[in-house]
Amino acid sequence: MAKVVLVSAVTPSVLQTDANPAGTPQAAFEGLQAGLAANRSEFYRAVASGPFYNFDQPGVEASEAVVANWWRQGMTVLTRCRSGAGGRAVVAGSQRGQICARARPEPRPAA
């Protein structure tokens, strides 16, 4: 082999900054965090049935199967946290880590 090319994806920054004035304002991300913290179940259904898959556009019919699957995947994080499977493998300070920290049940007293 004479030449090698390395190709990787570079994720663009979507946050609005001085360097990226066309980005999304911080308030939009804060709104998502607030919605997630207020009612996770409702949040996952609302995002999937609206903007994420463009089901909120005229003439587009929402697929209940897609919305239900999105909800199932989002709610699985909480199930893993409560069972202990997800809580230990989470990076401290990550969004999932914060959710697991709040969802972890109190220790049971020894019988």
Q: Please give the count of helices.
A: 4
| Secondary-structure content class | mainly alpha
Q: What is the element string, with H for helices and E for strands?
A: HHHH
Terminal Cα span: 66 Å
Described by strand count, sense and barrel closure, the largest sheet is: none
Low-pLDDT stretches: 86-94
If you compute it from the alpha carbons, what radius of gyration comes out, rounded to the nearest whole angstrom? 19 Å
The level of helicity is 40-55%
What share of residues are in beta strands?
under 5%
Find the count of extended strands (DSSP E, 2+ residues).
0
Integer average pLDDT: 75
Shape: extended
Q: Topology of this protein?
A:
Elements: H1 26-38, H2 40-49, H3 64-83, H4 95-103
Helix pairs in contact: 1-2, 2-3, 3-4
Q: What can you see in these coordinates?
A:
The protein is mainly alpha-helical and 111 residues long. It has a domain at 38-103. Helices cover 47% and strands 0% of the residues. It contains four helices and no strands. Helix 1 (26-38) crosses helix 2, helix 2 runs antiparallel to helix 3 and helix 3 packs across helix 4 (95-103). The chain is extended. Mean pLDDT is 75; it is low at 86-94.
